[in-house]
Specification:
The longest helix has 19 residues, at 175-193. This protein is α/β, with parallel strands linked by helices and 263 residues long. It contains 6 helices and 7 strands, in the order E-E-E-H-E-H-E-H-H-E-H-E-H. It has one domain: Rossmann fold (3-Layer(aba) Sandwich), CATH 3.40.50. Strands 1-3-2-4-5-6-7 form a 7-stranded mixed sheet, with helices on both faces. It has helices spanning 85-96, 111-125, 154-162, 175-193, 220-224, 251-262; strands spanning 26-27, 37-42, 63-68, 104-109, 133-136, 207-212, 235-240.
């Protein structure tokens, strides 16, 4: 696999040497000896890199997974949260630069899909086209409608999150954990609710969208609108049984489908 470059002239990027040590922006759950591609995975609002801890065992040996570690949670708890899309996408793109010695693909779930799309835009603007953009549990950016809960009271925000599905939502019922987790959750919701590109920029990268069939936040028509953000014949859609967090019980078939698309 090779990084494909657009035909139009763009400022070149010279990647820094590969970074194999600890990294505050990425968690490598299982390092590969000779990876041929890096899959960069972006969690949902309030989510962490732990969402992807089981994926490396299901991926081909030549694919190394980098799970994005947003600030303001877990071992980055002391760092300020980021509540604006441009700041988040710029920071992840900059952190990714030392790892662009290999081709990359990007997967995002929910809010992570929008961040992954914006990072894809930034990579392409620098002359580097990812192998594929994989978006999950998120309608196309120009079809998204904010819930209006980012600056509401804690109860409304927690109710919105718990309404998405049962994946780890019970932690918000524990007062001590709720106090630790709410700042990051609120910042993430501010980020995604303030992100409203009426005319988003298409990318050259092929896009695959995934969704849960019972996810009320992702009407199929609005998910298919991701096709408007890439070239003709470069979009496809796959659905799985389940709600917004369909990817947890369907981890094995989802990762198998992703692996097949990265070959």
């Amino acid at each position: 696999m090779t990084l494909r470059r657009p035909t139009t002239a763009l400022p070149p990027v010279t990647p820094a040497p590969a970074h194999n040590g600890p990294d505050r922006w990425f968690r490598v759950h299982r390092a590969r000896t000779r990876p041929a591609l890096r899959l960069v995975c972006f969690p949902h609002a309030g989510g962490t890199a732990g969402l992807f801890h089981g994926w490396p065992a299901r991926l081909p040996d030549e694919v190394e997974l980098l799970a994005v570690r947003y600030p303001g949670r877990q071992d980055r708890l002391a760092e300020p949260c980021i509540d604006a899309m441009d700041a988040m996408a710029d920071a992840v793109t900059a952190a990714l630069a030392p790892r662009l010695d290999l081709p990359v693909a990007l997967f995002g779930h929910s809010m992570g899909s929008a961040v992954a799309y914006e990072v894809t835009r930034r990579l392409e603007a620098r002359g580097l086209r990812p192998e594929r953009l994989l978006v999950s549990g998120r309608v196309a950016p120009h079809r998204a409608r904010p819930d209006g809960v980012a600056d509401g009271d804690d109860a409304a925000l927690i109710a919105t999150v718990r309404g998405l599905g049962d994946y780890q939502s019970e932690v918000y019922l524990i007062p001590e954990l709720r106090e630790l987790l709410l700042p990051a959750l609120r910042a993430d919701y501010r980020l995604i609710e303030s992100y409203r590109p009426d005319v988003p920029v298409p990318v050259c990268t092929p896009i695959t969208a995934y969704t849960g069939r019972d996810d009320a936040t992702c009407p199929e028509e609005a998910v298919r609108a991701w096709a408007e953000l890439t070239g003709a014949g470069r979009f496809d859609l796959r659905s799985f049984p389940g709600d917004h967090f369909y990817l947890v019980p369907n981890e094995a078939p989802l990762v198998a489908d992703i692996s097949a698309r990265l070959r």
